[in-house]
Every structure is written in structure tokens, then in C-alpha cells.
Amino acid sequence: MTRKMYWGVAILILLLVTAAVFVILREIADNRELNDQLTEAEELVEQINQRKVSENNKKPDETVGNPLQSVDESGHVQNSASASDISASDKQSGIELLPDFPVVTGVPKIPFWERLGLDPPDGDMTYRQDKYGNYQKVYKGQVWLGEVKFRKGYAPTLEQHKKMQQLLNAHFIAQEENDTAEVSRTKAEIDALIEAAQGDLPYYDGGGYLGKPGESKEEAIRNSRRQSAEAGHQLYVEYGLEHISPYR
After folding, report:
1. Contact (Cβ atoms closer than 8 angstroms) between residue 113 and residue 105
2. In the chain, where are the structural domains located?
3. Whole-model pTM?
4. Mean pLDDT of residues grouped by 10 in the chain (248 residues)?
């Protein structure tokens, strides 16, 4: 073998060794970069898990304002009953339970009735909130009534009412006697009086009944209707319309 061939073989071996070293170093660098990326990913996952654990360990916000809460001697709010303790008659009454109000962190918990200077709820009385945000006392075994509103209708004075009774009586007599002229005359006067006596008729916009313990469904319906009729009649009396009260 000539000297040139030896040199050629030596150079080839050197090139192969150099290439092998370069490939090994490249793989080491790639593996190191991959390990760094995996480490960063693991750290990110760990941070996310720690954040979730921290959020899950937070206590839910406490609330006040429930009408079933009471205040003890030290000023702390205590639950005197839960929603499951409400009797079936209470649930059937349609009473609106008051919403809870969130407590701002660091602010002392004050029941709404204490904050607004209202009487605290007890075993027979609680509160409902109307659409305007006003609180209304509600008692077990009693109806609660909505806002007084008015509708247009036949609202005669006592004199007009008496006149209408006379005209109706004359009209019926004329019909029985087939007196067509009198029938036409009385009908015209009746229509004119109805038109002249148009006015405002009062009514309660909504209402309900809060059942009491031991009261049957039939008793609750009976008591609700009786009390509602009494309240409606009293409303007509207050506005001078007792003579046409439909609740008598």
C-alpha cells in the first residue's frame, strides 16, 4: 500500500470521527433543550394546580338578610330555621322569601331589619319585598295585600246609585208590560247614567296568604277568601263606594 493510500485512509477515519462527534454533541444539545422545555412545562402545570387548589380552598361568601335569621345577644346573626323547615302550607301560600344580600369583606354583618330600623322577624311574622324594594310585614294565618291601584269603571255616587235602582226597576216593569216607549226611555236614561258615573274603582294589585301551622288546605283557602273579601270591601268603604261594593 502506498503512502498516499495511508494518508487517504487516515483522513477518511478522521472525517468519520469528526462527523460522529458532531452528531453526538448535537443530540446532547437537543436533549438538553428538550429537558429544559419539559421542566418549564412541569413548572407551569404545578403553578396551575396550586392556583386551583388555592381557589377551591376559599370559603364561600356568607350572606345575611334571610327572614329566617335572628340576632343573638352578642349581635351575631343566627339561623332560626332553614328553608326545609317551612311548613307545606307556607309553601302553598305563594309567599315570596326575601333574597340574601352578599356581605362585603370586612364589613360587620347587619340584618336588613336592623339596618332599616324595622321590627325583627319572629315566629309569626316575617317580611316580603315588593317590586319597588319596600319591605312589608307578613303574618301567618293572614292575607297580605299589594299596592292599591285604580281602574276605570262604573263608580256612581250614592245618589246616582239610587237613581239607577229606580231606572232599572221601571225598565223591568216596562218590559213585562210590553211598553216599548217606556222601555226605550228608561234604557236611554240608564245608558246616560252609566256614562256619567264613570270613575276610579280601587283594587289591590296582588296579594297572598301565609298559612299557619296545622291549617289544612281547605281551611287556608276558606280563610284566604274570607279575609280577601273583607279587605276588598273595606277598600270600597274608604273610597266612598260602599253602596256598590261587590264584596258585601
Report:
1. no
2. 1-58, 63-119, 142-244
3. 0.52
4. 63 65 56 56 58 52 36 38 39 45 62 81 85 87 92 96 96 95 95 96 92 91 94 96 93
